[in-house]
Amino acid sequence: MALPIPSPLVFTVTTQKPELVTPAKPTPHEIKELSDMDDQKVLRCHLPAIMFYRNSPSLGGKRDPVKVIREALAQTLVFYYPLAGRLKEEGPDGKLIVECAGQGVWFVEADADIRFQDFVEAEALFPPYRFLNQILYDVPGSSEILSAPLLLIQVTRLRCGGFIFAFRCNHTMADGTGVFQFLMALAEMARGANAPFVQPVWQRELLNSRNPPRVTCTHHEYDDNVVNAESNIICAEDKVVFRNFFFGFKELHALRMLFPPHQRMCSTFDLLTACIWKYRIASLQLNPSEEVRLSFSSNARVYFKPPLPIGYYGNAVACPTALSTAGELSLEHALELVRKTKSLVTEEYMRSTIDLVVIKGRPFIKYEQAYFVSDVHKMKFSDVDFGWGNAVFGGPSLVGEMKGSYFVYFKNEMGEDGIVVPICLPPVAMERFILEVESIFKGDDSNN
């Protein structure tokens, strides 16, 4: 179901001078190497996330979220002390290392003249956030990769007593699972824990290349010279539009019933990815012979033998890619491709990926040549509880013109669990996409 278009919000945020928060206790001064998986050029960026919190009447306004989270951050950095360090390049090939000397992370205190309910009424809890620069101040130099703080956190108090927690992490240090692990640890410390329930594990050498490195699998995500009509159409548009879609039990059931019985027992990820990919391509009205691509992130921790240690927070994600032509992409074929592509991810696939990265000198993954999906709904960023209860909505913050989608958990006002998916398309294609998807749900309602 398409969610309403957000209304413009105008508000003022007053920020205090950014400060560096350092670990609360002395930590080791040492050099730590990142893995070859971490050291990809495509990861030299920052991962942002946002959580919205209501006021908690039970606290009676006695606790200040800024003070609580600032203190918890210092305590958490004792355990995650590499995140308080600085990235450097080492050697002729520029391999990344972390200089751990307790230099600290950026923390910004802020106040906004707006209520939490204003965001709700404006349908502004979901990405993309046009006001992101207000609730996550881009401290000068903070977007650098080298010799800069690896984390940036802003806590913005709202007029009603609620607050917004906005966060940015250098992607070379952690993937989505690692970021979520850190945020849960931070929340535990904010609620009074003496140590995180899950202890962080470094051991980045586990994801270094083999000796000698050897590519044993096909990795379409790194293909060069790809001609992609889908990408060209979107890039040629002067304007693209974002819409968010909510898929609860009813919507997922309606999608599942579109498939023959032998395919209906697929996972929610497979179902949703296949349907969105198919209807997205159909909305663009491509030539039937045009090649179309789907890439998605796959947490590979469990595919290693033995699995990576619990608490490993480095990058351990594969991005396998499915190929089809627009004309062949029926719903059934899309689902089979998703399932087949997901099954490619094994320990050997990951080892082959790492070796390819080393052999080819850290090539970029060609995200722009595929529809990219990242499923984070099982992480439930809304479960990050600093003592004010769960976030009303939490997840990655998408900005700019992004072709891909995140699957994010959300509980709507009726208490229904579901998944919110942001979609980006040219305006006319978006109209077609909405009509197609809404017709499925209306048809399911009439059948029921």
List keywords for this structure.
448 residues, alpha+beta, Chloramphenicol Acetyltransferase, six-stranded mixed sheet, 10 helices, 27% helix, 22% strand
Structure description:
The chain has 448 residues and is of the alpha+beta class. The protein has two domains: 190 residues, Chloramphenicol acetyltransferase-like domain (Chloramphenicol Acetyltransferase, 2-Layer Sandwich); 228 residues, 2-Layer Sandwich (Chloramphenicol Acetyltransferase). It is 27% helix and 22% strand. It contains ten helices and 18 strands. The strands form four sheets. Strands 1, 2, 4, 7, 8, 9 and 16 form a seven-stranded mixed β-sheet that branches. A six-stranded mixed β-sheet has the order 10-18-17-15-11-14. The protein has a three-stranded antiparallel β-sheet with strand order 3-6-5, with no helix packed on it. Helix 7 packs across helix 8 and helix 7 crosses helix 10. The protein is globular. The mean pLDDT is 91.
CATH homologous superfamily (4th level) name of the largest domain: Chloramphenicol acetyltransferase-like domain
* H and E order: EEEEHEEEHHEEHHEHHEEEEHHEEEEH
CATH architecture of the largest domain: 2-Layer Sandwich
Determine the mean pLDDT.
Answer: 91
Q: Whole-number radius of gyration? A: 22 Å
User: Biggest β-sheet: count, sense, barrel?
Assistant: 7 strands, mixed
Specify the CATH class of the largest domain. Alpha Beta
Provide the β-strand percentage band. 15-25%
Number of helices: 10
The separation of the N and C termini measures: 17 Å
What is the approximate shape?
globular
What is the helix content?
A: 25-40%
Give the CATH topology of the largest domain: Chloramphenicol Acetyltransferase
Strand elements, count: 18
Instruction: Domain count, please report it.
Output: 2
Give unreliable regions as ranges.
none
Judged by helices, strands and strand pairing, the structural class is alpha+beta
Keywords: Transferase
GO molecular function, one term: transferase activity
GO biological process, one term: response to ethylene
InterPro entries: CAT-like_dom_sf, Plant_acyltransferase
